[in-house]
């Protein structure tokens, strides 16, 4: 099945990681492909090294992509991530594949919606495909079996709040 | 800080588990206390055994609690879970404590809202406290620093759908 976690609130990537952990406990092999992320100091990157059957591959620079002004390297890496996703889906080695922030990669114009729709349509039933990121396009919501929108009700974006190690990364 | 994941969509418990994994990667010790759950065959219970610094303790029966008709054992276990949470918060051994489904335990009348509010107010800043479950009461939302509402946009509750191993448990 196809799952989508979207919306403006905290919890999309973590929901996918938690879904991965649950699946791993039941014997799944899980791959998370991260778009637009290249920072190796994320807690989940460090933790995954010690969790059997959980691989995370990053296809992005450690710096943020500027909306409207992606660098050629941002685009190259996102396309490489999509090609890698197509390859691993075809190989059918993983029972769950998470495409983290793929919705944002589409929204920012790094990869094409039509190509992601093709990938989703061609994904065999034996693979649980999980897509995350704000701005999930209607076409992907229509293709998905399960969609959760994570809405921000409250966030400590008050004066002096900086992202916190272990919580935000 | 205090985080709350509520709403009717899939992703609340998994967001908390993903948050735990991220925190563990950054050196946190994490405890998840599960209310109203007693089934040891959940994927996260099995997986956590192999993840250092991640403990999950269940305070519930393996069967569902009937709303309006909780058994004395349901109530006893939930109260025990709350007392255990109070104890571990006071001990300050964990940097993150997740109270999974505690909102539902309050809504079902197993534990008192006033007692949970006291626990939240008394939690030291050194502990990240994460509360999950539908029906988060306004009082807890007011006390929280971060609240995400996970809304169901689409769920495959169609004919013949049964909960799936590795996905729903």
From TrEMBL, chains A, B:
<dbReference type="InterPro" id="IPR027417">
    <property type="entry name" value="P-loop_NTPase"/>
</dbReference>
<dbReference type="InterPro" id="IPR003724">
    <property type="entry name" value="CblAdoTrfase_CobA"/>
</dbReference>
<dbReference type="GO" id="GO:0008817">
    <property type="term" value="F:corrinoid adenosyltransferase activity"/>
</dbReference>
<dbReference type="GO" id="GO:0009236">
    <property type="term" value="P:cobalamin biosynthetic process"/>
</dbReference>
<dbReference type="Pfam" id="PF02572">
    <property type="entry name" value="CobA_CobO_BtuR"/>
</dbReference>
<protein>
    <submittedName>
        <fullName>Cob(I)yrinic acid a,c-diamide adenosyltransferase</fullName>
        <ecNumber>2.5.1.17</ecNumber>
    </submittedName>
</protein>
<keyword id="KW-0808">Transferase</keyword>
<dbReference type="GO" id="GO:0005524">
    <property type="term" value="F:ATP binding"/>
</dbReference>
């Amino acid at each position: 099945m196809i799952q989508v976690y979207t919306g403006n609130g905290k919890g999309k990537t973590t929901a996918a990681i938690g879904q991965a952990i649950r699946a791993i406990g039941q014997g799944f092999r899980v791959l998370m492909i991260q778009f637009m992320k290249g920072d190796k100091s994320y807690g989940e990157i460090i933790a995954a090294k010690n969790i059997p059957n959980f691989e995370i591959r990053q296809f992005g620079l450690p710096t943020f992509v500027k909306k409207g002004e992606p660098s050629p390297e941002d685009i190259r890496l996102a396309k490489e991530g999509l090609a890698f996703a197509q390859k691993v889906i075809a190989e059918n080695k993983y029972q769950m594949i998470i495409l983290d922030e793929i919705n944002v990669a589409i929204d920012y114009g790094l990869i094409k919606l039509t190509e992601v729709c093709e990938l989703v349509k061609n994904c065999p039933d034996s693979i649980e495909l999980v897509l995350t990121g704000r701005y999930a396009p209607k076409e992907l919501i229509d293709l998905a079996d399960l969609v959760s929108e994570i809405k921000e009700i409250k966030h400590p974006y008050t004066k002096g709040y900086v992202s916190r190690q272990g919580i935000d990364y």
